[in-house]
Design goal:
The chain is α/β, with parallel strands linked by helices. It folds into 2 domains: about 120 residues, Periplasmic binding protein-like II (D-Maltodextrin-Binding Protein, domain 2); about 90 residues, D-Maltodextrin-Binding Protein, domain 2 (3-Layer(aba) Sandwich). It contains 9 helices and 11 strands. It has a 6-stranded mixed β-sheet with strand order 2-3-1-4-11-5. Strands 8-7-9-6-10 form a 5-stranded mixed β-sheet. Helix 1 crosses helix 9. The relative contact order is 0.21. It binds adenosine-5'-triphosphate and 1-O-pyrophosphono-5-O-phosphono-alpha-D-ribofuranose. The site of 1-O-pyrophosphono-5-O-phosphono-alpha-D-ribofuranose has 9 residues, from strand 9 and helix 7.
């Protein structure tokens, strides 16, 4: 049995065409089904639905053989025990620093001010500001980061930006790009060795479809 870990929403939706290219269709839609283990058109392949941030953990411990996860999530996780053979080019966005319109971010950085930064991406933010030599106090949040500068909780946020609509709707502006983000295929290293004969054709089909 091959187990593939996916998260609901854009990762699931954008992985479906790749699975289809590998000849696999998923039996149920996770948006309407409460099931967390979904059968597929292949009796030896199943999909499990986990939180986006939990995909690397399931694959690291071998509870799933493969997973699809954003580079943002992988960077925070660290990638231990994971083979990362493929950038799937889906769920593309950018990790950005953003602040309130009118906030002089560059001036604050130039003056060596200590910035308060709210984010779900603590590791990424810490590394980014450390590399720039900017002193920051990081405030960990689990969502709705855009609220932090609007309520005085923080000077800036580190968050994902896709269309930019969320920033615009909240009168925030992106002031710095940290990295480009897309979803990656991750494979449990032991599973790759032990189940190579079933995993390799999947990997090949994904590689062709993602090209
Ligand atoms: P969790 O449920 O664990 O909080 P989440 O809400 O961040 O996760 P999604 O919104 O489905 O989960 O995001 C999954 C992945 O899609 C992210 O890890 C990121 O790589 C990518 N992503 C997030 N936001 C965007 C966006 N606005 N545009 C494109 N890709 C995005
Ligand atoms: C992400 C991110 C931003 C938003 C940015 O949130 O945390 O809030 O997307 O996307 P935009 O630039 O296209 O507006 P989330 O994963 O909750 O996004 P979703 O609500 O679009 O799923």
């Amino acid at each position: 049995m091959i187990t593939i870990a996916l998260s609901k929403g854009r990762i699931f939706d954008e992985t479906l065409p790749l699975l289809r290219a590998a000849g696999i269709t998923v039996g149920e839609d996770p948006e309407t089904s409460r099931k967390l283990i979904l059968g597929t058109s292949r009796p030896d392949v199943r999909v499990i639905i986990v939180r986006a941030t939990d995909v690397p953990t399931y694959v690291q411990y071998g509870a799933a053989d493969l997973g699809v996860t954003g580079k943002d999530v992988l960077d925070e996780h660290g990638g231990n025990g994971l083979y990362q053979p493929l950038d799937l080019g889906i769920a593309r966005c950018r990790m950005m620093v953003a602040a309130r319109e009118g906030f002089d971010y560059r001036g604050a950085v130039r003056k060596g001010a200590r910035l308060r930064v709210a984010t779900k991406y603590v590791q990424t933010a810490r590394e980014h500001f450390a590399a720039k030599g900017v002193h920051v106090d990081i405030i960990k949040l689990y969502g709705s980061m855009e609220l932090a500068p609007l309520t005085g909780l923080a000077d800036a946020i580190v968050d994902l930006v896709g269309t930019g609509n969320t920033l615009r709707a909240n009168h925030l502006v992106a002031v710095e790009e940290i990295t480009r983000v897309s979803a990656r295929l991750v494979i449990n290293q032991a599973a790759l060795k032990l189940k190579r004969r079933s995993i390799q054709p999947l990997l090949d089909a994904f590689t062709r479809a993602a090209a």
